[in-house]
Structures are given as C-alpha cells and as structure tokens.
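Supplementary notes for students who missed Thursday's class. We covered one full example, reproduced here. Read the sequence, then the structure, then the short commentary at the end.
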Amino acid sequence: MRNGQGLPLGFTALASGLKAADYELGIWRTGRIPVDLSTWHDRLNALVWLAFPRFKAALNASHAHILLAEPDEARRRGRRRDALTLLDEMSLLVTGPADLLQGLAARAWHELFVRQRERVKTQMSFTAVGHGLLEKTLAPYPALTAKCLLLEAPHPPDLHDLDVAAALALEGVVSPAELPPLPICGVPGWHDANEQAGFYDDRTIFRPPPGG
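Structure (token representation):
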C-alpha cells in the first residue's frame, strides 16, 4: 500500500478537530491515514483502504493536487472535490457491458432490472467501496442510494483489476452529475422484494431522470 507519492501507507490515531483538507494533505505528505477505531465509519474506511488501496490512494492524490493548486478549496469544495467526496463516502463500483451501464446512467430501471434482469445478474457486478454507504447498510432503508462509478470490465472482475480500473477512471470525473444514482435495494439479490417487477414502480425510490 502506497500513496500517490509512493510513500508507504499506514494507520494512525485520528486527532480531534482535524479538518477535511488537512486530513487529505496529511495522507499525501506522510502516508499516515488517520482513523478512529471506536467508530464503524472509520473502521470501514480502513477496511476499504486495505481492499482497494489504489482507488483510495488515487482519491487522496486527486484531493491533494487540487488543494495544493487552489488553497481556497480548503474552505469551499469545488465540483470535482464534491464528486471525489461522494465516491469516497457513497460509491458503488459497477461493471458490465456498455449498453447495461448506459441503462443505469439513464435510470432506465425497468429496462435494466426487469427486461434485462438475467443479463444484469450474469454480466454486471456491484461492489460497495464507499465507507459511508457501507456504514448505512448496517441499518438499511429502501431509499438508500449509492453513487456509481461505471466501468466496462470482464465479468466477474478480478479484485486487483477492479482496484486499478477504478483508480484510473477517477481522472475523468469532474462533477457529481457524472455519478449516476442507484438505490441499492434494486440490485438483484440484495432484496427479496425486487423479484417482483412492480417493485421498481415506486418513483419515490426509483426516480426518473431529470425531466423524465
């Protein structure tokens, strides 16, 4: 495990009152990841670092590059850092063929999860890497929604290759609008009730695209 500068990564105790910008710059400069192991949020964050070190290091490097180039970002995040934060906290890595990924991006819920259901089950993968999302699944609710990073990849994806692909894909993310939402209860196999086609009719959960 190494950060974007090649420094070995390790964990250290979280200091109270540490600001988000200082958190990111500290990891970038020292390779030390602050954690508070008394909280699920930080425990899960540490586990994601261990499972997806390239993805997490790329997130950190992207934050650090912006903060070093634009110091005002420490007071107010721009769109790219907003997107990076959403990926850190609430992301699913979604792999599959281009047409199914496009269906998810278009929020074509019935087309994707009803008409193309068997293809979704055999050709797509959904991997939770946002530690905030993982924490929320400890007490899940129907409208729990992830932000998706879409990746064309073989199925099933190799964990190492998925980590590398996700890290590379970050370079093209500049806005939260590029991260499609997905209510995780709709993923086949995650909730028994979604075996019924009418499950996807609830527009308070499976919202149409803007203007749809």
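Commentary. The mean pLDDT is 95. The radius of gyration is 18 Å. If anything here is unclear, bring it to office hours.
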